Fold this sequence. Notes:
Number of helices: 3
Protein name: P-loop containing nucleoside triphosphate hydrolase
Membrane topology: Multi-pass membrane protein
InterPro entries: ABCG_transporters, P-loop_NTPase
CATH topology: Rossmann fold
Keywords: Hydrolase, Membrane, Transmembrane, Transmembrane helix, Transport
Largest sheet: 2 strands, parallel
Strand content: 25-35%
Subcellular location: Membrane
Low-confidence stretches: none
Amino acid sequence: MVSHKCAEGVFQGAQEMLANPSLLLLDEPTSGLDSTTALRLMATLNGLARGGRSVVTTIHQPSSRLYWMFDKVVVLSDGSSIYYGCSG
Length: 88
């Protein structure tokens, strides 16, 4: 069962996407999604990035399939950056 607060948050996010923002900041957008849906979401975000939008997201445990979709990655350990660069 989806809580009212969760459904309200999804609705608000959908409304904000209709505003066509040039920058998307997403915190754990794949959290709670099955692997197929997560891959579809990331493919959509990748398409938005290729279309000129900036997409910044946090993902704590990306699958290898998702990892390779990123142009740039920052890997943090104990709050410090230990890698910044291309995913490939």
